[in-house]
């Protein structure tokens, strides 16, 4: 007897199964989206911190190379006894004179600011201290400034448009003449660099920057931006007890600029830089209080407020910018001359 053929029936998914599948899919999409957003946020934070670190490394490297070479004068071992500086009071008129005529633009940053070779390193405390040379935009009113004087490492030929150093073993002189002679010596361009913090930068008026006044051709001073994103610079000077050795044992004390005791000699510089992100992050609030160098007083939220007087005050910004505080100590190679 033949059996009847089995009828195969087809079934679809019902409404409940569709709803369950949709809910599962929705959870998967939400999980993937949350993971993406979290990963993207962490990546943005890591990228912002990396940029802060890179800014700090570059700014410190520029200052370090300059500080370490302070008081380098070629064949001369010290800049204290240079002729033809401070208004040409130490030399008779002649081929090597005329470096500091009253009308020369090399004096625009203050009388003998360019050529005070005896002061190979100077700093001011909590104020903009480059006399007569205004900041490029608006100087930070409570940051320190740092000035370094030295000779360029490379030798040069006599020039009528550069302040230079004629360096010999017996003596040295500041010169500015294409016909100047330097018998038994060598000619180097004079280097004078003044570092300061500007509230603005070439990128805009909301981004602070580290800038430098640099003695150059003319002779005159040019103002150049080292890097944007540097909000504050504080300086401490390390000095020895008279032995002239640039080492940890010799630098017996660190102090703010202007506190160098009689008989001391600067052998080291300690630099703090506060690096600030160039753009605010609405998901972040900087609630830290920054205390460093002589910033130990009652906290303020504005480093440039004349109303609160930010000099020597801790800094509590309470805003949406990420920051990084870095510090390094640099020893001067030529503390006793070359």
Outline of the structure:
The protein has 338 residues and is an alpha+beta fold. It has one helix and 13 strands. A hairpin with a 4-residue loop joins strand 3 and strand 4.
Please, how many domains? 1
Rounded radius of gyration (Å): 31 Å
Q: Please estimate the helix content.
A: 10-25%
- Helical element count? 1
> Main sheet?
7 strands, antiparallel
Which residues sit in consecutive blocks of at least 5 with pLDDT less than 50? 87-103
Secondary structure tally: strands:
13
Mean pLDDT: 83
**How much beta, percentage-wise?**
25-35%
The run of helices and strands is HEEEEEEEEEEEEE
Query: What sort of overall outline do the alpha carbons produce when their principal axes are compared?
Result: elongated
The N- to C-terminal Cα distance equals: 120 Å
Q: What structural category characterises the helix and strand content? A: alpha+beta
Any overview of this molecule?
The protein is α+β, with helices and mostly antiparallel strands and 338 residues long. It has one domain. Helices cover 16% and strands 28% of the residues. It contains one helix and 13 strands; from the N terminus they run H-E-E-E-E-E-E-E-E-E-E-E-E-E. The chain has one helix spanning 15-68; strands at residues 121-124, 145-155, 164-167, 172-175, 186-198, 209-216, 220-228, 230-240, 253-255, 265-276, 297-300, 313-315, 323-331. Strands 1, 2, 3, 4, 5, 6 and 7 form a seven-stranded antiparallel beta sheet that branches. A four-stranded antiparallel beta sheet has the order 9-8-10-13, with helices on one face. The longest helix has 54 residues, at 15-68. Residues 87-103 have low confidence and may be disordered.
């Amino acid at each position: 007897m033949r059996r009847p053929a089995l009828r195969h029936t087809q079934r679809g998914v019902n409404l409940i199964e569709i709803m369950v599948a949709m809910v599962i899919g929705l959870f998967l999409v939400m999980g993937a989206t949350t993971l993406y957003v979290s990963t993207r946020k962490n990546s943005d934070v890591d990228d912002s911190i990396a940029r802060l670190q890179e800014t700090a490394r570059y700014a410190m490297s520029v200052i370090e190379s300059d500080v370490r070479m302070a008081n380098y004068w070629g064949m001369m071992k010290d800049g204290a006894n240079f002729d033809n500086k401070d208004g040409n009071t130490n030399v008779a008129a002649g081929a090597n004179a005329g470096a500091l005529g009253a009308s020369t633009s090399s004096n625009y940053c203050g009388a003998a600011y360019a050529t005070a070779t005896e002061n190979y390193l100077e700093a001011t405390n909590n104020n903009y201290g480059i006399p007569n040379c205004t900041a490029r935009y608006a100087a930070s009113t409570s940051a320190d400034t740092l000035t370094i004087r030295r000779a360029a490492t490379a030798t040069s030929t006599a020039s009528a448009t550069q302040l230079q150093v004629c360096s010999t073993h017996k003596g040295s002189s500041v010169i500015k003449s294409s016909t100047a002679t330097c018998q038994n010596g060598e000619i180097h361009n004079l280097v004078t660099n003044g570092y300061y913090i500007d509230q603005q930068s070439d990128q805009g008026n909301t981004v602070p920057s580290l800038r430098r006044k640099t003695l150059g051709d003319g002779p005159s001073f040019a103002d150049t931006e080292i890097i944007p994103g540097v909000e504050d610079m504080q300086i401490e000077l390390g000095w020895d007890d008279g032995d002239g050795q640039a080492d940890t044992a010799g630098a017996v004390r660190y102090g703010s600029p202007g506190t160098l005791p009689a008989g001391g000699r600067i052998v080291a510089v300690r630099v703090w830089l506060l690096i600030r992100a160039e753009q605010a992050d609405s998901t972040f609030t900087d609630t830290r209080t920054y205390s460093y160098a002589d910033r130990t007083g009652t906290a303020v939220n504005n480093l440039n407020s004349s109303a609160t007087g930010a000099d020597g005050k801790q800094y509590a910004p309470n805003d949406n910018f990420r920051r990084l505080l870095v510090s390094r100590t640099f020893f001067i190679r030529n503390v006793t001359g070359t």
